[in-house]
Each structure stands twice: as C-alpha cells, then as structure tokens.
Amino acid sequence: MGASDKREEVIQAWYMNESDEDQRLPHHREPKEFVSLDKLAELGVISWRLDADNYENDEELKKIREERGYSYMDFCEVCPEKLPNYEEKIKNFFEEHLHTDEEIRYCVAGSGYFDVRDHNDKWIRVWVEKGGMIVLPAGIYHRFTLDTDNYIKAMRLFVGDPVWTPFNRPHDHLPARKEYIQNFLQNEGGQAVDAAA
C-alpha cells in the first residue's frame, strides 16, 4: 500500500480467510493479502479521508454532499449500549445483502468492517476507522460487522428520503444488481462473472 494516499490511514482492505471464527476478528489470509483502494474503486467502492473532528464545518464533506446529491444525513451508533436489539441487528447487518441505492457511511468515531465481494465472488474486508468515508454502489453484495472494539458512530448519507431495505442474497433479478454487474463485474470479453452462487 502506498504511504502517499492519506485514505489508507483510515481505510484498509484485504482478502478474508474462510474461517468461521468470531466475525469481529480481522480474518486475514496467511500470508496477508492486502487490496488497494484503487482495486476497491474497480468494484465501485469509492472512499475519502475527511476530518471527523470537524464534520459540521468540513468544506470537503459539504462539496462531496453537493456534488453527489446527498441531501439526507443522520447518525447511527452501533454498540451494545446504544443500539436497541443489538444482537439481532448485528446479525442482520452481517447477512449478505444488497441495496437498490448507494450505501454511504462516514465513520466519525470508532471503527468497523464492511465486507464486499470481488470479481470472483471472494470476500474483501474493508476496515473503516474514524475519518474514513466509503460509498458502496447500489447492487453490490456486502455485509457489515463491528471489529473487536465493538463501537462505531457513522454518518449515514442518502440521496432524497432514505431507503434502508436490505435484499438478502440471492437477488440477482433486481435492476440494481443487473446494473452493478454490467458496470463493474463484466470482464473484457463482455461475459458477466457468475455471482449467483
């Protein structure tokens, strides 16, 4: 990973092992296989490093919201003390699913894992810490869990009125999934990668 990209101080990604140990562990392969933020961008996952101590007045955040049309904003704290029905919610977040709209999360405190599928349907774990903001494109299969610190406070952004409906895998028939496959998963020969497993 290049030290020149400030995003890598708050966002790291790697291929996951197949272990079914505690989902909050890093799950590195041995040897470790890191994934660049450029590789994530090829999957449609884009990211920024922002000033989480100054989010109310951050001009860069304001510019991103204006350019991308993120008119809605709220906060979600995920930890046993703050989230009602914590055990059920964290289990639901970790169920592989997609959304028909972007999922935008800006970590203003704590940290957590967003797992996404690569072109070959392998899991990539994306660790987002305070100051990291990521956008998961509509139609990408993903899941979320806390790390062993058991705490994240995230700003949730959305275009218009928020729709948080998860569609658990498989939902390949949805237009958002078909568009995602067309935009990000087709290989050079025009063949879609089989993600219906």
Automatic annotation (TrEMBL):
UniProt keyword annotation of Oxidoreductase present: yes
Keywords: Amino-acid biosynthesis, Cytoplasm, Dioxygenase, Iron, Metal-binding, Methionine biosynthesis, Nickel, Nucleus, Oxidoreductase
Domain of life of the native organism: Eukaryota
Note on how the cofactor is bound: Binds either 1 Fe or Ni cation per monomer. Iron-binding promotes an acireductone dioxygenase reaction producing 2-keto-4-methylthiobutyrate, while nickel-binding promotes an acireductone dioxygenase reaction producing 3-(methylsulfanyl)propanoate.
Localization: Cytoplasm; Nucleus
Binding, Ni(2+): 97, 99, 103, 142
A matching Pfam family: ARD
Pathway terms, separated by semicolons: Amino-acid biosynthesis; L-methionine biosynthesis via salvage pathway; L-methionine from S-methyl-5-thio-alpha-D-ribose 1-phosphate: step 5/6
Entries under InterPro entries matching the protein: ARD, ARD_euk, RmlC-like_jellyroll, RmlC_Cupin_sf
Enzyme Commission identifier(s): 1.13.11.54, 1.13.11.53
Cofactor(s), names only, from the UniProt record: Fe(2+); Ni(2+)
UniProt binding sites for Fe(2+): 97, 99, 103, 142
Chief location of this protein within or outside the cell: cytoplasm
Reaction catalysis annotation: 1,2-dihydroxy-5-(methylsulfanyl)pent-1-en-3-one + O2 = 3-(methylsulfanyl)propanoate + CO + formate + 2 H(+); 1,2-dihydroxy-5-(methylsulfanyl)pent-1-en-3-one + O2 = 4-methylsulfanyl-2-oxobutanoate + formate + 2 H(+)
Known function: Catalyzes 2 different reactions between oxygen and the acireductone 1,2-dihydroxy-3-keto-5-methylthiopentene (DHK-MTPene) depending upon the metal bound in the active site. Fe-containing acireductone dioxygenase (Fe-ARD) produces formate and 2-keto-4-methylthiobutyrate (KMTB), the alpha-ketoacid precursor of methionine in the methionine recycle pathway. Ni-containing acireductone dioxygenase (Ni-ARD) produces methylthiopropionate, carbon monoxide and formate, and does not lie on the methionine recycle pathway.
Cited PANTHER family: ACIREDUCTONE DIOXYGENASE (PTHR23418)
HAMAP family (alphabetical): Salvage_MtnD_euk
Assigned protein family: Belongs to the acireductone dioxygenase (ARD) family.
Protein name: Acireductone dioxygenase
Organism whose genome encodes this protein: Hibiscus sabdariffa
Lineage: Eukaryota, Viridiplantae, Streptophyta, Embryophyta, Tracheophyta
